[in-house]
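Service request form, structural biology core

Requester: graduate student, group of Dr. S.
Request type: structure prediction, single chain
Budget code: on file
Notes: please return the result as structure tokens.

Sequence provided:
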Amino acid sequence: MNSDDLRLFARIVKAGSISRAALETGVDQSTLSRRLAALEGELGTRLLHRSGRGVLPTERGEKLLEYAESVGRLLDEAGSVMQGGDGRGPGQLHIAAQPTIASLLFVPLARLLKARYPDTRLRLVEGLADQLLDKLAGGDVDLALIYLPEQGVVQADVLLNEGLRLVLPVDHPLADEAVPVSALREVPLILPSTHHGLRLQVASLAARNGFVPQIAVELDGSIALIKRLVMEGCGGTLLPEAAIREELAAGTLKSCRLTDPEVHRQVGLVLARNRVVPDGLWDIVRLIKDEVARLVESGDWPDARLERG
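Core staff response, request fulfilled:
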């Protein structure tokens, strides 16, 4: 089995028939059939269901297709890196971030990257942490910026610490000032489900302060919807100040700083593993770190403190 066999197998599956794959690849049909038979013989299993309407992968064929596509991507990346070592940067760059981070960073970062690497096709992805980690593991993104701690993160480059605030409806009786963490026991909360980092952080805080949090609503979705639920009086939530700046200015939400202890979380940069490093990636990481530092030091990333190291 070699990479050419895997590419041909993937083309046959995508085409849906050996004859169509032969037309697309320029390889005659008998040669394709012979190489497919040899591949099945080597692996000791049938890879395709054949019928008069074409071919479909068997269960083992579906699994081999995943490997074939992964190997194809890796070879394409290797070719791109070898051909692109002239300082022009990668042919394409995929960066992911959680929503609040994306809202602060993506616009200035895109501007900087397009100026530095005008030939690079830039793709920006916004999503929840578990979605982004899946994309990293699958090789769909080159790097991600996420809140820590998060399950599944083995190694991250910590960029900053960001305060978390208790966010409430404007008519909530709690004063618009600092409150102890123990006050959370009285507030029904709107939080992500149990496998998300923020939910785990709240559970840990509550356990250390001797209470069980009241969960009013579980929502694995947009921050905008969480804020709307808070406005409508469905409960409170915990968010960084950067996520609620507009609502605080408009007077549609209020927030309290949490004390005893102060509550914060980290923003980390996580790189994809087990793949070819895109040309110029380390320079891109440095550029991201410099832009994060500029946002924090200028006050455009509020209630944040850089992690020096």
